[in-house]
Amino acid sequence: MSNIKNAFAGGKAFIGFLTAGDPTLEKSREYILTMEKAGADLVEIGIPFSDPIAEGPVIQEADLRALAGHTTVEDVFRLVEAVRQTSQIPLVFLTYLNPVYHYGAEAFFARCEKAGLDGIIIPDMPLEERDECAGAAKRHGVDIISMIAPTSHDRIADIARVGEGFLYVVSSLGVTGTRDTINTDLKGIIDTVRSVTDVPAAVGFGINTPEQAEKIAAVADGVIVGSAIVKLIAKYGTEAAGPIYDYVKAMKEAALRGGK
């Protein structure tokens, strides 16, 4: 069993995201550890990619900044290893099929295991293609985290049944990015999930305020925030540690309130 279970052991989980290499790999390590100190239970690390189809402008721009800094897939593996020198916080990659296939699935997941990665999210890998990575991931102890979108409908139960680590429930249609309101019937989706699996369900896409985090944590097992953190990194660059700490702390506290 992966380390991811620990993220949900203490109640409602807060999951943060950043793009590796934005602004530098050294700062990415610092900001991951900052999130942990502020209360984050798991961190998603985005592997910079030139065509991140699930991402909105904020994360697309972070990818471009990291790529302009010549951040490679191997650099991101070394980032995980650097974090593992001082922390065992659950770590998950967010990437796309192209980098995995280019590296070679077996070699990629073997490298994940060596680095100390716990899971992976691949937004452009549908349920029907999951088996192309599932064997290699399982052999190397990496959970494939399934995404459930509002449009999944009759497929929700099927996707949930094969989910590992946690299930990523997408709050809204479209790409990542902060939203003022979230109107999806999240409770209905999560009720369906819980009817077929006990794998935790965390909600992401658009969440950026403590009020949203508290509301979503009332129905979900965790809250995922990406674009709002990446915005802080874009604004403050190499001086973002303080703002990230304050923001993550407030969001984690809100998630815990939602669980009461």
Automatic annotation (TrEMBL):
Enzyme category, top tier: lyase
List the keywords (alphabetical).
Answer: Amino-acid biosynthesis, Aromatic amino acid biosynthesis, Lyase, Tryptophan biosynthesis
Q: Please tell me whether the keyword Lyase is annotated for this protein.
A: yes
Q: What's the Enzyme Commission number for this chain?
A: 4.2.1.20
Pfam families xref list:
Trp_syntA (PF00290)
Reactions catalysed? (1S,2R)-1-C-(indol-3-yl)glycerol 3-phosphate + L-serine = D-glyceraldehyde 3-phosphate + L-tryptophan + H2O
Pathway connected to this protein: Amino-acid biosynthesis; L-tryptophan biosynthesis; L-tryptophan from chorismate: step 5/5
Q: Which InterPro entries match?
A: Aldolase_TIM, RibuloseP-bd_barrel, Trp_synthase_alpha_AS, Trp_synthase_suA
Of which family is this protein a member? Belongs to the TrpA family.
Q: How does it assemble?
A: Tetramer of two alpha and two beta chains.
UniProt xrefs under NCBIfam families: trpA
Write out the function statement from the record. The alpha subunit is responsible for the aldol cleavage of indoleglycerol phosphate to indole and glyceraldehyde 3-phosphate.
Report the PANTHER family cross-referenced here: TRYPTOPHAN SYNTHASE ALPHA CHAIN, CHLOROPLASTIC, TRYPTOPHAN SYNTHASE, ALPHA CHAIN
* Protein name per Swiss-Prot or TrEMBL: Tryptophan synthase alpha chain
| Record organism | Megasphaera hominis
Recall the taxonomic lineage recorded for the source organism.
Answer: Bacteria, Bacillati, Bacillota, Negativicutes, Veillonellales
Q: Which gene encodes it?
A: trpA
